[in-house]
Amino acid sequence: MEPVELDVGALRLRPWREDDAAEVLVVQQDPEIRLWAGGVTSREEAGALLRRLMGQEGRVSWAVTGAGTGELLGSVSVHSIKPAQGNAQIGYWTVPAARGRAVAARAVDAACRWAFATVPLERVELCHAVENAASGRVAEKAGFTLEGRLRRSYRYGDGVRHDELLWGRLADDPAPDLGSRS
């Protein structure tokens, strides 16, 4: 399944390209991204990460950019896609300058809408470490419902297993109100 470009007001979700590696390497040095996503330490690792994002079965990944500028603002991926079950998971990260501007919530919403219509899916799950309150705000803004806590369910970039909060969004849930989509 290949990602298509999605225009979302002031944002564009576009397929990752191998020439994004240098920019991804810089972004992956951010302490928040390293804590929750691990990060890469060389251009070669950044290239390998992008090749995995672009070519992994059961995953569709986008670079989130400014629609007018092309500036990299983040990433969003629908992964663990199980068409027979109608389920998938979603993950994302944003650069520091994009945080607090609903960039992640808009990108997650756009990716969910695409997945519900295209795969098609019935359910998308979002998990994040309990300590990552910002991801909880993204989930809520993007129309997800908090469903529970998963104890010591995932080892994050810090090497520690964290409890996670599980959120779900169904295809027929009300669309989130993200205000102006510009």
UniProtKB/TrEMBL annotation:
Keyword Transmembrane tagged: no
Gene Ontology cellular component terms for the protein in this record: cytoplasm
PANTHER family: ACETYLTRANSFERASE, RIBOSOMAL-PROTEIN-SERINE ACETYLTRANSFERASE
Top-rank lineage group of the source organism: Bacteria
Classification via Pfam families: Acetyltransf_3
Tagged with keyword Transferase: yes
Keyword entries, A-Z: Transferase
Molecular function as annotated in GO: protein N-terminal-serine acetyltransferase activity; protein-N-terminal-alanine acetyltransferase activity
Alphabetical list of Gene3D superfamilies matching this protein: 3.40.630.30
Residue ranges of domain N-acetyltransferase in the record: 11-172
Name assigned to this protein: Protein N-acetyltransferase, RimJ/RimL family
